[in-house]
Write a structure and sequence with these properties.
The chain is α/β, with parallel strands linked by helices and 228 residues long. It is 40% helix and 23% strand. The longest helix has 16 residues.
Length: 228
């Protein structure tokens, strides 16, 4: 059975969400603070995380950031604060979606279903490996190496690189990438793409790759640019 980690210091909220998670066929795992959330995340390896932003010990942003260091597990932030800069911060550190309190439990479960559909939706490519210059990208192994250096990327970052590199010099709008990587039923916005590209670049730019770059086409989107 798949687990869903529900991290919130309000027992009324965790109780309601746990009941709805069971109705969806998931086994809920409850955490009342950020430290407990990380411990139970490592122990249960949940299919999805519902994460309150304002929690004792470690807040939701810190927990999400630590999860993202080694996992692509979907994270949905749940918060009473809806300012744009806080939503952007959540997306920047790797959250997959953002739900405001008060919320409908049915809506929360719909978002969980949507994000899990995106994670399990796969399209078998005609080829599963490509080499460009000193870069070797494998979709079969979900790995990227530049020269002799293996770059530690999440599943979504590998898929982003694959789509861009498979179409060199083609400009993808944010909406193009959002539809390709997250699906048409995604509840978030295209700033998610900016956040993933930002993290992707930070990792790949740590190693020289003079033959190519992931470049921004201002006001439009992104492309994998082959340099002459």
């Amino acid at each position: 059975m798949d687990y869903i980690l529900i991290a919130d210091d309000n027992p009324d909220i965790t109780s309601v969400l746990a009941n709805y998670a069971r109705k969806e066929g998931y086994e809920p795992v409850i955490a009342a603070d950020g430290d407990e959330a990380l411990i139970k995340f490592k122990e249960y390896k949940p299919a999805c995380v519902l994460l309150d932003v304002m929690m004792p010990k470690k807040d939701g942003y810190a927990v999400c950031r630590e999860i993202r260091e080694g996992s692509d597990t979907p994270v949905i932030l749940v918060t009473a604060r809806g300012e744009d800069f806080e939503k952007i911060m959540g997306l920047d550190i790797g959250a997959d979606d953002y739900i405001l309190k008060p919320f409908s439990p049915n809506e929360v479960m719909a978002r969980v279903r949507a994000v899990l559909r995106r994670m399990t939706k796969t399209e078998k490519p005609e080829e599963d490996c490509m080499t460009i210059g000193t870069m070797k990208l494998s979709l079969a192994e979900y790995s990227l190496t530049i020269g002799d250096t293996k770059i530690n990327l999440t599943k979504k970052e590998i898929e982003t690189m694959w789509i861009l590199a498979k179409n060199p010099n083609k400009v993808f709008t944010r909406d193009n990438l959002l539809d390709s990587l997250w699906g048409y039923d995604y509840y978030g916005d295209n700033r998610t793409v900016d956040s993933h590209i930002k993290r992707l670049r930070a990792k790949i730019d740590a190693v020289p790759h003079p033959e190519w770059e992931v470049s921004t086409v201002w006001g439009v989107g992104y492309k994998f640019e082959i340099k002459e």
